[in-house]
Write a structure and sequence with these properties.
Layout lengths: L3 E7 L5 H5 L14 E7 L6 E2 L3 E2 L5 E2 L3 E2 L14 H4 L5 H14 L5 E2 L11 H12 L12 H15 L8 E4 L2 H12 L5 E6 L4 H8 L3 E6 L10 H7 L4 E7 L11 H11 L6 E5 L25 E6 L12 E4 L2 H14 L5 H11 L6 H23 L5 E2 L7 E5 L7 E2 L3 E2 L3 H12 L1 E2 L1 E2 L8 E5 L4 H16 L8
Parallel strand pairs: 7-19, 9-10, 9-11, 11-12, 12-13
Antiparallel strand pairs: 1-2, 3-6, 4-5, 8-14, 13-14, 15-16, 16-21, 17-18, 20-21
Helix pairs in contact: 4-11, 5-11, 6-7, 6-10, 8-9, 12-14, 13-14
Length: 482
């Protein structure tokens, strides 16, 4: 017989945006806290009494008393310090909650998720359908089928100028899995992972999951959020193990020019322990004259670079869950060892579809170039529209599909019926309450002055969102004129 779960709560009165942003999360001290009392009933225990206490470091303890003549017993339900050190992804939480609100009939415009609004191109979808019909529905080798690894090798040689053999490729359930396995494979407790900010929300948490220390290097919007090689050099120590680069960038859309990558490579070359993880998932979503350079293609960098890519973004295959890692065999084999005990091989169907994707032509061919043109048109519209507003600072994205705007001009404003706009969290909450537009606060990416807007949505949707945001901002007056 199934157990039943009853939840009662004592909840402070929250605005619409506060509830949406999940500001009841006890794992994030920047959020307001909510207290919950849980009562569990189980057929195996006549009664269950529990006392939970949330400690400052997030550890949960409980006392469980079993009835029926047994002596009282204590059950330790504390969590691993490693898990307690990891914060949940705000982008995932916001996206999930926005979807739930939309399904409930709330007219929220969702610009939080980094997910293309296009359908997977027909040749890819057809390959997946055929894989099912032809019986390719069984386990694959842990590293991936040979045909997909060969196709990846061909792609990396032709498009990126880097040579690999199939045993230097590991196919995983998404690029996110590829990255976390790489971090776990090369980092030891106490090692430092160097992460330029603004950063993808998962990088620091992946470092913490490996008991490594994230070291954040700030960048400036005035310099297009590009890493200063001198700052990098000043922060490197004997503990520095991994430098994570993401170009084109999530969340800024910045593309690191080849000359700057070469300067970074010169710094890296001075530190034998330092490896580089190059996240290139957005490489095909790039706007001329910007061009993409794979870090592993630079002189002396192949031996110390772990290149991560995948199919989610450029090929509109987010739900297919397929990514890959390329690098020296020693490191790739270590990642494969983790994967063999973690998830094993990726989806057989997605792998067949990915072979078709890589067969569509250079950089995805016409189907992908059509998507990229649409993204560029959307970018141009947003840059022009927000450029008309007073006080905003914008670095025009050169790739990906995000706009990372400095809204700090409006911080300090008091809004009747809402309160004070103190930071990116409260601004996003305000824009949700007043404009019903869901955005991601820049604090999630390591820059509280900014807000991330995803333009992986139709131009019509973006036009409506801009009008709502502009209307909501009219009520704001900066505390101090800028």
């Amino acid at each position: 017989m199934a157990n039943s779960l009853h939840t009662s709560s004592t909840v402070p009165r929250l605005g619409f945006g506060e509830q949406f942003l999940g500001l009841n999360s006890a794992s994030d001290p920047s959020f307001r806290s909510l207290s919950f009392t849980y009562q569990f009933r189980s057929m195996s225990l006549k009664s269950l009494e529990s006392t939970r206490q949330l400690k400052s470091q997030g550890e949960i303890s409980a006392v469980v008393r079993a009835q029926g003549g047994l002596d009282p017993m204590q059950v330790d339900i504390s969590l691993s310090p490693r898990v307690n050190s990891v914060k949940p992804s705000k982008t995932v939480a916001i996206t999930d909650q926005a979807t739930a609100l939309a399904l409930a009939g709330v007219p929220v415009i969702r610009l939080a998720a980094g997910e293309p609004d296009f359908d997977t191109p027909a040749p890819i979808a057809d390959a997946g359908i055929n894989a099912i019909r032809e019986g390719y529905t069984r386990y694959t080798p842990n590293a991936g089928n040979l045909d997909i690894r060969q196709a990846i090798c061909h792609k990396l040689k032709e498009e990126n100028g880097i040579s690999y053999t199939p045993d230097q490729i590991l196919v995983s359930n998404g690029a996110k899995q590829s990255i976390v396995q790489a971090v776990l494979a090369v980092c030891s407790p106490g090692d430092e992972v160097i992460i330029p900010a603004p950063f993808w929300v998962s990088y620091p948490e992946m470092a913490r999951l490996a008991d490594a220390t994230p070291v954040i290097l700030p960048t400036s919007i005035s310099k297009n959020f590009l890493l200063d090689p001198k700052l990098l050099e000043s922060k490197l120590t004997e503990k520095s193990r991994l430098l994570i680069l993401c170009s084109p960038s999530n969340p800024t859309g910045s593309v690191i020019p080849k000359r700057l990558l070469e300067e970074i490579a010169q710094v890296v070359a001075k530190h034998p322990r330092l490896l580089v993880l190059s996240d290139e998932i957005y490489e095909h979503i790039i706007y001329a004259p910007a061009t993409h350079t794979s870090f592993a293609s630079l002189p002396g960098m192949w031996e110390r670079t772990l290149t991560v890519n995948g199919f989610s973004k450029a090929f509109a295959m987010t739900g297919w869950r397929l990514g890959y890692l390329a690098g020296p065999k020693h490191f790739v084999a270590a990642c494969g060892k983790i994967q063999s005990q973690f998830t094993s091989g990726a989806s057989s169907i997605a792998q067949k579809a990915a072979v078709a994707a890589l067969g569509m032509g250079y950089a995805g061919g016409e189907a992908i170039s059509t998507m990229v043109k649409a993204f560029r048109d959307r970018r141009d519209f947003l840059v022009k529209s927000f450029g008309e507003l007073e006080g905003l600072k914008i670095s025009e994205p050169q790739g990906a599909f995000y706009l990372f705007i400095d809204f700090s001009y409006y911080y300090g404003a008091d809004v009747e019926g809402f309160g004070k706009i103190e930071n990116s969290e409260s601004l996003c909450r305000y824009l949700l309450d007043k404009g019903q537009v869901a955005l991601v606060p820049g604090s999630a990416f390591g820059d509280d002055s900014c807000v991330r807007i995803s333009y992986a949505a139709s131009l019509t949707t973006l036009q409506a969102a801009v009008e709502r945001i502009k209307k909501a901002l009219v009520s704001l007056r900066p505390a101090v004129p800028v």
